[in-house]
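Practice set, problem 2.
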Amino acid sequence: MTSPRLLLDLGNSRLKWALADGSQLQLGAPVAHEPGGLGDLAPLWAAAAGAGSVWLSSTALSLSPALVRAVAERLDLETQVFVSPKEALGIRSAYDQPASLGSDRFLAMAGARTQVSGAFLVADAGTALTLDMVDDGGQHLGGLIVPSPVLMRDALHRGTAGIRTGERVRVREFARNTDDAVWSGACLACAALIGHAYRHGALGVGADVELLLAGGSMPALAPHLSMPHRHLPNLVLEGLSLWASTTLAAAG
């Protein structure tokens, strides 16, 4: 029996992880970052004690070295770190400098490619909202990045003297208090951008486009989308699993 693979998706605010045994993912509870550190990883270490390999995608680059060191100390394993290539896993990057495309975005597209036969748009809302359009042949057509609703709200707090709000509240077409006005504006702006990308993606490929949603902030946006969509929250981990399987198979 082969040992399971530990998959690590280190984002800007949370570490998502899973154990992969074949094509099956056993998802662990995400771990929020602590100021200056990785957070409480005790549940991860307990679950991953029998792992045979470790595979990492990271957008929190300042924390990556600490995570790699912790894996080596706790599990005595070397971590394989994904860097976005020009072409792999059924996806061809549109970027002139492929390595500058976020590894999470490339892997999310690769994970989506295994589930969608035609063109698709991946909308991933975490700390940022990223959008990536892929045609039916696996060609990445490019993407967009904006702050998520939470980051938009926080930017208003930092950049203005008069706008102070509570936590996320209600989304209204025209709000009657500042809390609702800020949150409504942020959510509806992100939802409008997703709609814009969806429509122009369909025009660009001349065919129907499947909209795939992921990310921890997406539940706030999904109710305000008028187009059909699927929620696939673990696309990055699924892409990591595909990369691990492909790499290990190529190594014999």
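Problem 2, part (b): a different protein.
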Amino acid sequence: MRSLWIAMWLAASMPAADWTLYATMTTSKGYVVGAKLLPSGVFARDGDGDGRWRQVGFGHPFAVTAGYAERDPATLYLAAGNGLIRLTEGGSKWKFLTGSDVTEIRDVSVGPDGAIWYGHSAGVRVSRDLGVTWTEVKKKYAEAVRADRTRASVVLVGGEDGIWRTEDAGRTWRLAGASGFGVMQMEQSPHDPCYWLAVTQHGGLFASRDCGKSFENAPRMGVERVLYTVSFDKTDARRVVLAGWGFGVAVSEDGGRTFAFRNAGLPSTDVWSAAFDPGRPGRLWASVHEEAVYRSDDAGRSWVRDGLEGSIVYRFSFVPSKGGAR
């Protein structure tokens, strides 16, 4: 117990890391087809409680999620409805890395070797030359893609029929779990690289403790619901958050064994995404459907409205500010 309290004190006393929060979003409330596009695309938020959201680059109605390479956080990769886009020079320069043969990019992940992986409506592709050329490695719808941050040849893909894993950089694939369920997102724990969590449509939460080789049903949270996101807290190995439609936000304080709903103060339980802030212990972000982004400084026990009114934030991404798109 004494060591636990020491760890908690150290976490609380550590200076906040310098991160920038990115939201890939669209403003859909009140939009009429044919009208001028409402604020949409990539938005960033700097600073503490008095921070403000600012648009990064151009308006885009189908920006899904953003990723970056640990070795080069100044470059963002945007998974979007019309291709994979590279953002440089503070987000002012956008370059499409894909052609007209691929659409509906659903997720992007950069491996420890710099390889860029993305999932799209008809499969998975990888580039080992910063997006100059691409190789198709899987020919089936892929909603979620995650490269193992510790082993360059290991990649996990979630689609309409479960979670698939490769140990040889995409040459062969094996079903790892969640068979028959649509997988919406997967995450690897920042504290234990062999601990993975995945959220699904109607199947609830799935967990792996063997480096993603096999997944089993975790606590019966979100069964018969659509869970959109799962996020680990980089500042506290005990905390995990889930978000979903008609589900809201649920937080675990014991490493994902049990969860408690944290919806008091939110205007709706239709939540698209939620994520813990790696730079502020206890800070939690959530996107409520066509309402706004909400912020909590006590792990979801209370909430305040933070901005991006009328929006849908598909994914929150945190990037080190020392190199992020500014």
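Answer key, part (b): Confidence is low (pLDDT under 50) at residues 1-16. The helical segments are 2-13.
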